[in-house]
């Protein structure tokens, strides 16, 4: 489960400080040292950890905290607030276009979970927001990707717009939106091609689709288990495409949490959803405060 390692690692430290009637500056320093080591072990970006610890120290050593009631608990509260802020603070909402359909472009590297997440997101929008999405198969390089999306569409009983592997992805995306308008579909979710690595050809194609369909959201799908690699991938995609948010998949298998804790601070873009398993109903809105609670127990 997400953050398991971090939570286990910090349990002792949290107990120690919350149990104290009085907390000294030295106690705070010791605790932040532990938090720092735990975060680095969890593969959180080095600079992110450094800045975070500085903020925690500044706030926790403040008079109000150390001289207040339950100083130990207050110190932990500061840590929790800072972790929440680090992950984006408020839970961020999904866009709604003034004039339907709302267009969402799904981008990411192969294997990150993009196609699965396209299906999960459609399911989530229908279940929680009563929307009727249409899926678009714009990954024309891998016939398997088109089949996979069509299978998901069948499972969900949702239309999948596809023109096989011969058509141009930009045209597919454009025509899909026309079709969605005719069929009164209020969300169009475009599953674009992925590659094994970030490369120019991929970015050019995504940029062309972006320029043509003018999406309301560009969601980058990254695999949480790849840790700092996921953060680097997010930086590259954001530099090229100016993404609007991140979907972090496979958080169910990520005991460390380095990507979850670093992405917002490094890219400035929020994590909007988290994949918590392979099934279509295992996509959750990402709540920074709940994630921070998971870490601190
Ligand atoms: P794509 O190449 O990016 O389109 O990746 P796929 O959608 O084909 O997913 C790759 C693999 O990751 C599949 O086996 C999915 O079932 C799996 N997967 C996707 N999201 C999650 C998740 O949140 N948790 C787990 N455990 N597996 C996931």
UniProtKB/TrEMBL annotation:
GO terms for cellular component: signal recognition particle. Composed of three domains: the N-terminal N domain, which is responsible for interactions with the ribosome, the central G domain, which binds GTP, and the C-terminal M domain, which binds the RNA and the signal sequence of the RNC. It is found in: Cytoplasm. This is Signal recognition particle protein. GO terms for biological process: SRP-dependent cotranslational protein targeting to membrane. Part of the signal recognition particle protein translocation system, which is composed of SRP and FtsY. The gene is ffh. Involved in targeting and insertion of nascent membrane proteins into the cytoplasmic membrane. Binds to the hydrophobic signal sequence of the ribosome-nascent chain (RNC) as it emerges from the ribosomes. The SRP-RNC complex is then targeted to the cytoplasmic membrane where it interacts with the SRP receptor FtsY. The lineage of its organism: Bacteria, Bacillati, Bacillota, Bacilli, Bacillales. It comes from the Bacteria. Keywords: Cytoplasm, GTP-binding, Hydrolase, Nucleotide-binding, Ribonucleoprotein, RNA-binding, Signal recognition particle. Its EC number is 3.6.5.4. It catalyses: GTP + H2O = GDP + phosphate + H(+). Its main location: cytoplasm. Transmembrane segments: none annotated. One of its GO terms (molecular function) is GTPase activity. The chain holds residues 1 to 297 of 447 of the full protein. GTP binds at residues 108-115, 191-195, 249-252. Belongs to the GTP-binding SRP family. SRP54 subfamily. Residues 270-283 form the SRP54-type proteins GTP-binding domain.
């Amino acid at each position: 489960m997400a953050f398991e390692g971090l939570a286990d690692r910090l349990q002792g430290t949290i107990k120690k400080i919350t149990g104290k009637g009085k907390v000294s500056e030295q106690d705070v320093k010791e605790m932040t040292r532990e938090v720092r080591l735990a975060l680095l072990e969890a593969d959180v970006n080095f600079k992110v950890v450094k800045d975070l610890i500085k903020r925690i120290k500044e706030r926790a050593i403040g008079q109000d905290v150390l001289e207040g009631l339950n100083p130990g608990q207050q110190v932990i509260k500061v840590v929790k607030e800072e972790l929440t802020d680090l992950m984006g603070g408020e839970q961020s909402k999904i866009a709604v276009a003034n004039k339907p359909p709302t267009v969402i472009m799904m981008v990411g590297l192969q294997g990150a979970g993009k196609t699965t997440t396209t299906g999960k997101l459609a399911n989530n929008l229908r279940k929680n927001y009563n929307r009727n999405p249409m899926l678009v198969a714009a990954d024309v390089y891998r016939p398997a990707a088109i089949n996979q999306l069509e299978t998901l569409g069948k499972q969900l009983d949702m239309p999948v717009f596809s023109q096989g592997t011969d058509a141009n992805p930009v045209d597919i995306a454009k025509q899909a939106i026309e079709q969605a308008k005719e069929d009164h579909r209020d969300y169009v979710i475009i599953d674009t091609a992925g590659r094994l690595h970030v490369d120019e050809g991929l970015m050019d194609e995504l940029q062309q689709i972006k320029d043509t369909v003018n999406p309301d959201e560009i969601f980058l799908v990254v695999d949480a288990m790849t840790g700092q690699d996921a953060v680097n991938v997010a930086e590259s995609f954001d530099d090229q495409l100016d993404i609007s948010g991140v979907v972090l998949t496979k958080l169910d298998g990520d005991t460390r949490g380095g990507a979850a804790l670093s992405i917002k601070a490094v890219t400035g873009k929020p994590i909007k959803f988290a994949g918590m398993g392979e099934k279509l109903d295992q996509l959750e809105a990402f709540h920074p405060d709940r994630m921070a609670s998971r870490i601190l127990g």
